[in-house]
Amino acid sequence: MGRKTAHPAVELFEYLSGRLNRQAGEAIEQHLAACGDCARLAGLVRELKAGAQEARLEQSARHPDTGELAAFFYGKSPRARSAATAAHLALCRSCASELALHAQAEQAASRYDSSKVEAGRVPDSAWALIRDWQESNFARPKPAREWVSEQALAKLSQALSQQKDELRSLAKSTLERDRAGSKAEEDPERAGPVPVIIVDRSARFRGVEIFERSEGPNGASILTYPEKSHRFDNKQFHALLDFGEQSFIVISDFIKRDKVRLQRVTRPDGQLRRADYFIVED
Amino acid sequence: MPDGSVAGAGTNKNSLESLGDEEVVDLFLASLKTDRESADMYFEAIIGRYYWLITHIVRNSHFKFPAWDTADDVVSRTIFKVYRGLSQWRRQGKLSSFIARITTSELIDTIRRVRRDQTWDPRPVASDQESDRPTAIDLASSREPSPEAQLVNRERQRIIGQLLDDVCRDWKDSVIVNEYIIAGSNGKEISEKYEMSEDLVYQRARRLRVRLMKWLAERDIHSPEELMGSGIGKK
User: Fold this and answer.
1) Which residues in chain B touch residue A66, judged by CB atoms under 8 angstroms apart?
2) What is the pLDDT of residues A207-235, one digit of tens each?
3) Which one, of A235, A239, A237, lies nearest residue A188 by Cα?
4) Which of A9, A105, A129 lies closest to B77 in CB terms?
């Protein structure tokens, strides 16, 4: 039996990629013949190489979208999504090359000094896009008070009713995915994760995000967006409080730095039975 | 946030130069709903500072833009998206980084769209419909593997996916696995492509080696056959 040499570190990868000279390669082969751990690792790397080949053919339909790619690069995507994106990027050459564009852009941005360059200007074609957008309905923000009008609430309520089962199932699976369990849903004032429905200005369902509720002073609820991405900063957070058939109100406040504080509301004519939370995001 | 009165009091382009990015963005956002002319002026000032960053990022990609979607088109769309998205800037990072992110995302969207378009060949295939001779399509052998091979491949991918889920902690780990371990690129190429030092490439490769070995040891896997039959990740 040959004498076992020190475990190769990156040299093993170099060997498996065919980049070592003959002498160095032979030394690695001798080591692999004597070391089970390194031989296992070499087998695994060969499987990765073989697997990457097949994965390239199959993964064309499952590339992360540009938002996911950017969020992953900047470290803003939640753990579950980032694990899947990390695995994809480890195999997909085209997505890895696209991510390289982010790395290069970020490097350029970090070196860029706007005071040292000649002032540029907004091209006419960009102004044309901006004007088209401004003239369209999408660009006209409705004041929150107007949005949370009786008609908007009725529309939201109708949308929620129509999709109630789907929304509850989605909220529940989102909670379970965040390892929170579903008990928080049943008690509207309990600390813990709460699902928040995201809708657009037409009250169309856009998704569900999880906020963490904790108790603040004087019974207020503090809801925090755990992703810390500031995605919803400066948007209004609405709580639709159901005190029973005769008593139903909305309280709102702005989200600042991923947090919003909602005062505690009590009613003499009923107990809080249910609280639904939503954010309007275009 | 400035109350807009500064905007109405004759803020001109010269005085804007002395303001920081945050201040100009605040002025822009404050005047957006009430004073479009001032908002445009502030936005021109912002883009005036970062126009060359945007064009550098787009042109430095070395992507060959088609005639119907040029680099200038990408720059214009980026600027439009900056206009729409400035309210989302969180101020923790630099404005340059925020704009770089928007630019690169628009660039990637364009690249993907152009590639999808280019897979479709609009030229009609010239064919003689009266001919009895088999066409090239008739003669081409199937590229699909057998159903058994497909099953094995899918299982392999599932296990590899689980492995990579576990060992890749961030984008640097992913690209080291992809480029260095699997594709066999050298450290220098990777460091230049991904703007990281060569030392970091090797450091990450060493760490990944340790994690890969630990992954195998934790699952008591001693061979590729055991790996494939391990049932790892199955619910």
Assistant:
1) 105, 108-109, 112
2) 888 888 888 877 788 999 988 778 888 88
3) A239
4) A129
Considering CB atoms only, which of A43, A73, A129 is closest to B76? A129
| B-chain residues near A52 (CB < 8 A) | 160, 178, 182-183
Residue to mutate among B102, B108, B206, B232, with most A CBs inside 10 A, is B108
Judge whether B160 is closer than 8 Å to chain A, CB to CB: yes
- To which H or E segment does residue A104 belong? helix A93-111
For A147, the token pair is 């949005």
A272: helix, strand or coil? coil
Residue A201, pLDDT above cutoff 80? no
pTM of this prediction exceeds 0.90: no
At A23, which amino acid appears? Q
- Inter-chain CB proximity B178 and A101 less than 8 Å: no
pLDDT grade for A206, boundaries at 50, 70 and 90: confident
- A140 contacts in B (CB within 8 Å)? none
In chain A, which residue's Cα lies nearest the Cα of B143? A57
Is the pLDDT at A116 greater than 70? The verdict is yes
* Pair A185, A195: CB distance under 8 Å: yes
Q: Nearest residue on chain B to A82, judged by CA atoms? A: B170
Average confidence score pLDDT of chain A: 79
Which three-class secondary structure string do you get for chain B?
Answer: CCCCHHHHCCCCHHHHCCCCHHHHHHHHHHHCCCCHHHHHHHHHHHHHHHHHHHHHHHHHCCCCCCCCCCHHHHHHHHHHHHHHHHHHCCCCCCHHHHHHHHHHHHHHHHHHHHHHHHCCCCCCCCCCCCCCCCCHHHHCCCCCCCHHHHHHHHHHHHHHHHHHHHHCCCHHHHHHHHHHHHCCCCHHHHHHHHCCCHHHHHHHHHHHHHHHHHHHHHCCCCCHHHHHCCCCCCC
> Any idea what DSSP says for residue A137?
G
Please tell me the distance in Å from A74's CA to the nearest CA on chain B.
Answer: 9
CA atoms of B233 and A267, how far apart (whole Å): 50
The CA distance from B205 to A90, in Å, is 13
Q: Is residue B230 within 8 angstroms of chain A, CB to CB?
A: no
Of A123-132, A141-150, A208-217, B203-212, minimum mean pLDDT range: A141-150
As given in the structure block, the two tokens for residue A54 are: 């097949």
pLDDT at A66 over 50: yes
Check if B27 contacts A (Cβ < 8 Å).
no
Q: Identify the pLDDT of residue A63.
A: 87
Is the pLDDT assigned to residue B97 strictly greater than 70?
yes
Residue in B72, B104, B161 nearest the CB of A105 = B104
